[in-house]
C-alpha cells in the first residue's frame, strides 16, 4: 500500500485520491480470512472515529462556552470564572493574547481536526480537505508554541515534572506537523499520511490526557496515584502516555493494514476496539467531571 501511496509523479490533487486516513487497502484482492480481519480492522477504526468525534466536539463546545463566549462578548476576564492555572491577568497584554489564541486554536482544532480523517468528505470536497489540513497543522503549531510560552515564560504550570511531559508533546507536535507538510509538498503520499495522523494524535495529546485521567478516576472510584498538582505517579506517567500510547497504537494499525497476516490485523483491531471503549469511558468522565459543570 505504501508503495502505491508513494508513487512518484502524482499531482498535489492526488493527495486526496489515494487510500488515506482510516482506510485499509482494497479487500477484493485478499483471501477470505484476510478479508474478514481487514473488515474487523476497518470497523474498529470506524468505532474509534465515532467516539473520538463525540469527545472532540464536546471539548470544542466547552471551549466555546467557557472561552469564546466571554471573549466575543467583550468580557475576556470572565474566563477566570472557572479555575485556571494563571488565566486572564489585567494588564498582561501578551500573556492574555497568547492564552486566548491558545485556547481558541484548541477549540477550532477540536471542531475541525477529525474531519481530515473522514474519507467521504475528503473524496467529495477535496479542496476543503486541503485547506482544513493546512489550517489544522498551522493551528497545531500555534497551540504548541503558545503552550510552551504559557508554561515556561508565563509560568503557568502546576509542577515542573508534569510540565516537562506536555512540553515534549509540544516539541513533537512541531516536528510531526513540519514533516506532514514537507511530505505533502514533496508528494511522498504514504509518508504524508502517516505523519499527518501522528500530528493529529500529538495535537490531541492534551485532550487525551483529560480522557485518560477521568477514566482512571472512574475506574479507581477516586484518586490513585494522583495529586492536586497532577504530579502523582499516574499523572506523570500519563503526561507522556497520553500521546505515546496513541502513537504506538497508530504504528500497530499502520503495520496491520499493510500486512497480509490476519492474526496481526485481528490483534490490531482488538487493541483499537478495546482502547476505543476506554476512550468512551474517558469522554463520559471528562464530560461529567471537567466540562459539563462549567456549562
Ligand atoms: C496543540 C495542542 C494543544 C491544545 C489543543 C491545547 C488546548 C488547551 C485548552 C483547551 C486549554 C484550556 C484548558 C481548560 O480550560 O480546561 C489549555 C490550557 C493550557 N495549555 Fe494547552 N493545548 C495544547 C498544547 C499545549 C502545550 C504543548 C502546552 C505546553 C507546552 C500547553 C500549555 C497549556 C497551559 C499552561 C494551559 C493553562 C493556561 C492557564 O490556565 O492559565 N498546551 N490548552
UniProtKB/TrEMBL annotation:
<feature type="transmembrane region" description="Helical">
    <location>
        <begin position="195"/>
        <end position="216"/>
    </location>
</feature>
<feature type="transmembrane region" description="Helical">
    <location>
        <begin position="266"/>
        <end position="290"/>
    </location>
</feature>
<dbReference type="Pfam" id="PF10067">
    <property type="entry name" value="DUF2306"/>
</dbReference>
<feature type="transmembrane region" description="Helical">
    <location>
        <begin position="133"/>
        <end position="152"/>
    </location>
</feature>
<feature type="transmembrane region" description="Helical">
    <location>
        <begin position="45"/>
        <end position="64"/>
    </location>
</feature>
<protein>
    <recommendedName>
        <fullName>DUF2306 domain-containing protein</fullName>
    </recommendedName>
</protein>
<feature type="transmembrane region" description="Helical">
    <location>
        <begin position="164"/>
        <end position="183"/>
    </location>
</feature>
<dbReference type="InterPro" id="IPR018750">
    <property type="entry name" value="DUF2306_membrane"/>
</dbReference>
<keyword id="KW-1133">Transmembrane helix</keyword>
<keyword id="KW-0472">Membrane</keyword>
<keyword id="KW-0812">Transmembrane</keyword>
<feature type="transmembrane region" description="Helical">
    <location>
        <begin position="99"/>
        <end position="121"/>
    </location>
</feature>
<feature type="transmembrane region" description="Helical">
    <location>
        <begin position="236"/>
        <end position="254"/>
    </location>
</feature>
